[in-house]
Amino acid sequence: MELYYSFSVLIVLASLFAYINHRFIKLPSAIGIMLMAIVASIIIRFAGSSIFPDATTKIFKLISELDFTEVLMGAMLNFLLFAGAIHVNFADLRKQRLPVLTFSTISVVISTFVIGVILYYVAPLFTINLPFLYCLLFGALISPTDPIAVLGILKKANVSKSLETKITGESLFNDGVAVVLFAVILQLTHTDDAQISIGSISLLLAKEALGGLILGVLLGYTASKALKSIDDYVVSVLITLSVVMGGYLIARAFHISGPLTMVAAGLLIGTYGKRVSMSSLTKDYLTKFWELIDEILNAILFLFIGFELLLIPDFETYWLLSLATILVVLFARFISIWIPSLIVPFQPKLSRGSLTMLVWGGLRGGVSIALVISVSHGLYKEVLLEMTYFVVVFSIVIQGLTVGKVSEKVLTKPVRKVKLSEGQDKR
Length: 427
What we know:
The chain is mostly helical. The chain has one domain: Na+/H+ antiporter like fold, CATH 1.20.1530. It has 17 helices and no strands. Helix 4 packs parallel to helix 12 (258-277), helix 6 packs antiparallel against helix 7 and helix 6 runs antiparallel to helix 14 (319-343). The protein is globular, with a radius of gyration of 23 Å. The termini are far apart.
């Protein structure tokens, strides 16, 4: 009953904020909802106790008691990744397989270590000492990109299909890789050095990542075969729901990556399943169903990100470091894209404009919030939470609202003016 009550409140607030944004503010839906939740959090935090004390107490209790990590990582993320993957054109993704694979794996590792090393030396400048493993832990949780809020803007900004596929494909796969990397580093923070070995880390990474991909392919292929034997959109929707919900339970039981399972299953059903197993009517209903699921869960997700402000007990101690961390994360994002672009033989090579868009369009989101909340309460939980919140809010609001203008500036080729000689036809 408590979970039903919590989700009822979130749905009501999300629908109210979505209406206000659509009717009056007219920002991208996810950004508008999150900004209104942040404003509501500020009002509750500083004036709620005196204006509406009972409601303030209930809201604080609702936000603090809701297990956001379990809700997002165990439910919402699986639905969001599957919904995103099922709409991806596999042919486009295959053309961009090298940059997508590079950015979702090598770039995540580079970003993690660049952030970890810089933060380890920068934090003491603000009289804050973070152990190196916790700096790496922050690097792992903040490295995955979440461009869901900006994909609509990218399309309106006339971004090329190849660049859009790079950003989308990277976001689908790097969530799973970053979660595995985060789990490994988190385990190291609770493990004696004598028990750490390259072999054990490699085995854990292989089991989580490869196991997730293999399970996803098996689920996607099995579901596609089942869909091929029927032609009923209701049963088809139920089958895809069972893939997401049952697939997560299997992945959890075998301790493999749920996010990568959902991505692989969604890609297979979205390409092979739609092509050979569905009539046009079933395909239309299935597409619209998962688009609706995507929009609803995104509204709830960004609403909750806004209200996460209430979980930060004190802004005064770490706000300067948190602001500096924004620059560190952006720099690490640039390095993690730039270095592979010099070494890996991309065809065609990344242009300066594409590099800029990959850096500025790499938004952070709910996955980072969920991961930092999952860190056990201790000496460093508060600083990690505040740094993460600052980066995520800056990423979604500032980068999300300006990425369209940035794309117009860096991707639009200037028209060369040719000086005509005397007597030359000017027509």
